[in-house]
């Protein structure tokens, strides 16, 4: 599908948008592209305020607002969500873009395996912002969307899909690095499926952006980086191109999008594996997540 953000994104007048991880890579390009189409407000998160100031200056818009947030900390995510809630009673697009890939075994500040803790942090943000999203969805002519950044790499998940009993360990001796990443990306995909089932009034989808030349790839070790480029020799792309798929699902005609679906670039229904179609696993992930986030 040919999709040109400059000409194909419609007028976004009145829309409130929140993008996590918006200070670099495809998150940054999403902020830049959407800011050109007259939204009421774009919130974007990150940890680098200097980069954020540069993005705001580039867009030349007082409607682009930076919210500092550390995704290794649930308390930081909660504070950021409360800031949004205090400033607006409307949210039209939540783009859960931030993430990490193939990092060393570690725990987040709340004790979760680092890939799962950061890449699957979206549920806390979604949980806290869900009343605002649902209220927006009740308005006549509304079109509320949640876009979750998954990856074709979900297929590297461990046997069983998600090893729930070990998610509060580094899993350093249990599964290899790529499996920890794949597990978290499978979670992103399944959570979007369950969101669509439970809240059909909101369009919830997951996407694979493509293999993008961002810090996620350039920061890999020599072997991992070589494997990425060898297995995708013709498909690596710039961040500008890599942002197109999430921009498409965030702004395309609602009738062209299947709620709960997983999309590959651009606008193509993605290739699934057995676990990515596992309804029971999606339900188990939802229940586990609700239990872990019960105190928030």
Classify the helix fraction into a percent range.
40-55%
Total DSSP E strands: 10
Instruction: Using the coordinates above, name the CATH class.
Output: Alpha Beta
Number of domains: 1
Rg, Cα atoms, Å: 18 Å
Major sheet description:
8 strands, mixed
How many H/I helices? 12
Could you explain the architecture of this structure?
- This is Oxidoreductase.
- Keywords: Oxidoreductase.
- The strands form two sheets. An eight-stranded mixed sheet has the order 3-2-1-4-5-6-9-10, with helices on both faces. The protein has a two-stranded parallel sheet with strand order 7-8.
- The radius of gyration is 18 Å and the shape is globular.
- The chain has a single domain (11-292), classed as 3-Layer(aba) Sandwich (Rossmann fold).
- The termini are far apart.
- The chain has helices spanning 5-8, 25-35, 49-59, 74-87, 114-119, 122-137, 177-198, 215-218, 222-231, 239-242, 244-251, 279-292; strands at residues 16-19, 41-46, 64-68, 93-96, 145-149, 203-207, 211-212, 236-237, 262-264, 268-269.
- The protein is built from twelve helices and ten strands.
- By secondary structure, it is an alpha/beta fold.
- The model is unreliable at 222-234 (pLDDT under 50).
Features:
Rossmann fold, 296 residues, eight-stranded mixed β-sheet
Break the fold down into its secondary structure elements and pairings.
Elements: H1 5-8, E1 16-19, H2 25-35, E2 41-46, H3 49-59, E3 64-68, H4 74-87, E4 93-96, H5 114-119, H6 122-137, E5 145-149, H7 177-198, E6 203-207, E7 211-212, H8 215-218, H9 222-231, E8 236-237, H10 239-242, H11 244-251, E9 262-264, E10 268-269, H12 279-292
Parallel strand pairs: 1-2, 1-4, 2-3, 4-5, 5-6, 6-9, 7-8
Antiparallel strand pairs: 9-10
Helix pairs in contact: 4-6, 7-12
